Amino acid sequence: MGNCNFKLLENSIPLEKKYCTHEGEDEKITKIQVACFTGDFDTIIDLLPQLCETVVARNRDDLVQLAYRSGDCNIVRLIREYQNSFWKDNQLQGDYENANPQTSVDRADIATYMRFISTAPFFIRPLIRLTIEQQCLNHFDQIVELTIQNRGDTSCTDLIDLWATFRRKICIKSLLRIYTLAQPPMSTIIQNKSSGYATLVYVNLHNIECRQRAFNGISYRGEFISVKDLVTYSGAKGKEALVEIKNFYSTSKLEDVALSFGGYSDENNYKFPALYVFDFRGEACSTAIDLVKEPVISKFPDEEEVLLLPYTMFRVVDVHKAGYTDNYGCNRWIINLKNIIVPKRNFMSFIWERTDLKNKPEIFCTLN
Hints:
Distance between the termini: 28 Å
CATH superfamily of the largest domain: Toxin ADP-ribosyltransferase, Chain A, domain 1
Radius of gyration: 21 Å
Strand order of the largest sheet: 1-4-9-10-6-3
Shape: elongated
Order of helices and strands: HHHHHEHHHHHHHEEHEEHEEEEEH
Strand content: 15-25%
Number of helices: 15
Number of domains: 3
Mean pLDDT: 78
CATH class of the largest domain: Alpha Beta
Helix content: 40-55%
């Protein structure tokens, strides 16, 4: 699945920053010790975020040894990596963190800002294009040029043609098709620097082509999930807190296709095999784009791809272990997510939020 800001969760869930009082920590550590020994992953997930970093660090070695005795490698990895400065400093899992917690839709500033960009009335769009679009075009131009330099013209023929078509005709199909290219692997290239590209897609979501592709149904994604993301989703389960994805996600209407990704787990890779189940039933979601609806955009139509845009927002319905080993050797975490539609904002909100977001380091570089 396709790639945001993660200072949260280093202290606790819920998401507001809280200062540790060490209240009840001995009792919690005792419960975690028992859970490590008995393989009770749910209890560990529930209690770990309630402890401050120093308490976790002080007890980590003992907890890891107990987890080893239980024979549960998932618990070993969770305890070893959670709030561990070694893993953080070496960024062993940074590329896999894709869950950004939000306390409510109203506080999801970037998501609501992008929502306004995509739904702005026609008389506002020239202002948006004047203030945002050209910067995004220049930003993605640089990515295209660098990709051509690194990969060569021969490997980038489709990329060159599609980008030229979009620049000439503002053809949203060409822009979206770029993401599906296998040669060069644009989904990987875009994930690491998606700001300009993502904003260009949002700017053009009002296009009739995109509106007709808004997805209504269930899609799936198989991948490896980081410890932080797993704790984020588990901590938000059944609560009012929401989770927004930070990057593009390629999902499929077919569960079997999704299961073919993130399989064959390596016990030493510090990631968990997972299957995401995204529920878009009810109101069609404009930021979940059906790439196989006629005319087909995807280069691989058999995969039945639904592309999720950054800042698509969800409520966590459930997080649980599948309880069986699939054909790819995985007993996966199943993460059930229900889409939450971000409310529209008025023009003054657009002006206010643009000014405010410029001061936030996690917002797209194109806004500065």
